[in-house]
Amino acid sequence: MDRELAAAMARAAGLDKALAEFPDDVMGAAAQALDNAGAVQYPTDPAAEPWPPMRPGVGL
């Protein structure tokens, strides 16, 4: 991953302080996220929730 692009994305995400203090960690996290982006499976049903509804009494 291009360090300049990763730094710009980190700044856009509000990670200025982390980028200033731990640039190698931020770059490592960006590279890991990019490498695993294809493993994320999106639901086929747009109405499906990836977790139970956040309502009291449901699923307890």
Short description:
This protein is mainly α. It is 50% helix and 0% strand.
Structure description:
- Helix 1 crosses helix 3 (about 25-35).
- The protein is elongated, with a radius of gyration of 17 Å.
- The protein has a domain at about 5-35.
- With about 60 residues, it is mostly helical.
- The protein is about 50% helix and about 0% strand.
Count up the helices.
Answer: 3
Number of strands: 0
Order of helices and strands: HHH
Distance between the termini: 44 Å
| Low-pLDDT ranges | none
Shape: elongated
Report mean pLDDT, rounded to a whole number. Answer: 84
Keywords:
mainly alpha; elongated
Task: Please describe the topology of this protein.
Blueprint: H1 3-12, H2 16-21, H3 23-36
Helix pairs in contact: 1-3
